[in-house]
What does this fold into?
Amino acid sequence: MSEDIRVARMIDAAREVVFDALTEQGGQEAFYSEPGWDVESTCDLRVGGLWTVMFGPSREERYRHDHVFRVIDRPSRLVADTTESRPDGSSFEFEVEFLFEARDAKTLMTMIQRGVPTELRDEHRDGVPPALRRLERAIEKPGTPAKEE
It folds into this structure.
């Protein structure tokens, strides 16, 4: 049995702005863009639609996340069933939920992952805070690459 991974960040933007950034190509790519990584994202934003993100240090060594949307409640919540395929050929399935809570003129964005294998929890838990920071930078400066500091 796996425990949930829950990571939150306060973002200085309205929740509609944050929701839309995550569901558009630029924001999706910023979310997954480790420094120097190759990222490709396509998204069919509808219940049953597929959001595919391929990302990694090179085109030959990429991870792939296939998210199938189960819930789309703009601007409050997204839920998707995710299959993660790894460069070594292994894969696993988990659920991801994004919550967008209005806090005055800001948004508390929370990402919850359920069902991540125990041996990969730390990797996922460590990867989410920088992803939320990159999304926030993309919102602050649209059209510019979100780089790590």
Observations:
- The beta strands are 5-11, 38-43, 50-58, 61-73, 77-85, 91-103, 106-114.
- The chain has one domain: 5-140.
- Residues 144-149 have pLDDT under 50 and may be disordered.
